[in-house]
Design a protein that fits this description.
This protein is mainly α. It is built from 11 helices and 3 strands. Helix content is 64%, strand content 5%. It has a 3-stranded antiparallel β-sheet with strand order 1-3-2, with helices on one face.
Length: 212
């Protein structure tokens, strides 16, 4: 099982078929048993969607012509996201993403060239992206214009904050366990969390985790 290939298939359903990310992920993750693998696939999919406009701009700068196969394009975006935003070693990100395209030799060669090209030209590509508004804030032009119209003074901050990963909040079933006891259990498992002051049953995890 290649987690990057699964993520690319999920993203291609979103890009090509217009399926919601939630529905596409739910279907794909049913066959993934490892909680670690599920979390990695989710991180890839949510991350690519969050930074799609920036990643797509960078991808276009690396290409002579657009990739018609959206599944291959999605895999290229998965590779770029790892290199730009994740703590994945570059050689592992490249090799595993290329491996995911092994059934299409032309795509395997293309993705290898794209990802290595990004590593060589990363600084200049990121600078180009910073100089194009929709890529800099990773939002579509229509949404940028609407936010600027509605909140002209706060628009830039709103656009930047909108890309931040939201915290993972949980509601503790107080009929079964107290919040303090649950926080203690999490601490014993190495999971850091804090109580929410304005809601007696809510906690916020320091880092997202799989919930069973």
């Amino acid at each position: 099982m290649n987690t990057r290939l699964i993520a690319a298939r999920v993203l291609s359903r979103v890009l090509q078929d217009g399926q919601s990310l939630t529905a596409a992920l739910e279907s794909a993750l049913q066959s993934v048993e490892s909680g670690k693998d599920r979390a990695f696939i989710q991180a890839l999919c949510y991350g690519v969607c969050r930074y799609y406009h920036r990643l797509d701009f960078i991808l276009s700068e690396l290409l002579d012509k657009p990739i018609k196969d959206l599944g291959v394009k999605a895999l290229a975006l998965v590779g770029l996201y790892q290199l730009k935003y994740m703590r994945v070693k570059p050689h592992a990100a490249v090799s595993e993403t290329v491996l995911a395209a092994r059934k299409k030799p032309w795509a395997k060669a293309l993705i290898n060239a794209l990802l290595r090209g990004y590593l060589r030209e990363q600084d200049s590509l990121e600078q180009k992206a910073d100089n194009v508004q929709y890529a800099a804030v990773s939002h579509p032009d229509w949404l940028i214009k609407q936010i600027e119209q509605d909140w002209p003074q706060q628009a830039q901050q709103i656009l930047l904050e909108n890309n931040q990963q939201p915290p993972m909040a949980l509601r503790v079933n107080l009929a079964r366990i107290s919040r303090d006891q649950y926080l203690q259990q999490l601490s014993e498992q190495g999971i850091e969390a804090v109580a929410v002051s304005f809601c007696p049953s809510a906690i916020i995890l320091d880092k997202p985790a799989t919930v069973d």
